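Input/output pair, single chain:
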Amino acid sequence: MSCQETRVLLHAFLDDELDPVRSLGVQGHLDGCRDCAREHAAHRSLRAALRDQALYFRSPQGLESRVRAALGSQGAIERRAGWLGAAGAFLRMRWAWLPAGAVAGLLAVTVIIIGRFGAPPPGPLADDLLGREVVASHVRSLMASHLTDVPSTDQHTVKPWFNGRLDFSPPVKDLAGEGFALVGGRLDYLAGRPVAALVYQRRLHVINLMIWPAPGEPDRSPTVALHQGYHVLHWTQGGMGYWAVSDLNENEMKEFVGLVQR
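Output:
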């Protein structure tokens, strides 16, 4: 068996998914090839590290009962039982203590939960969960140097860029005259769907404005939350949901939101 064939089968070999003949062939090659043996050892070490109990978190005692009480009706509890079991620990977690890899993993779990069980019922718990996801997306865009897909200060360049990429047209405003310069836009993924992310700048502070449809939801005034030192403002207007996030101070964030709402 060649090195190329062995490396193709290596993951299946580690998971005991190969038939006896191929398994013996891979093992025989590993016994005689130092390079492939080193790669095999690296994969085994990685798998062991991912199983480390330090990466897993148990929800605080009594959390489930508090979540059930907050949701209200027994019918809602039964409909979202799967969501509660999987997402309960997520809501109270101290994100600042988590390594970047663990945060990314938790976000992936959240997407899977929402895809399988649906979004959590509207209310403070749903807003808290989504607010944390919005903050994580904001931080990720800064860390990964992927702030914009379409860098432009021209609203007539940014808005049409979303055509064909989203199933809605996000409103894009030029607020440079008021001190909030448009930097560009990008596609993001929140609440189990693609969303528009508009990027503004106030001095050295970056503001991410996430927008996606909120059909059937009435207009709601902005609410303010603080997650990991970031101000998050959320409101609905004209059938759209808006989430603005930045490390900018609360008063200037409210000023920005007021301009967007005009």
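The longest helix spans residues 124-143. The domain at 147-261 is CATH 3.30.200.100 (Phosphorylase Kinase; domain 1).
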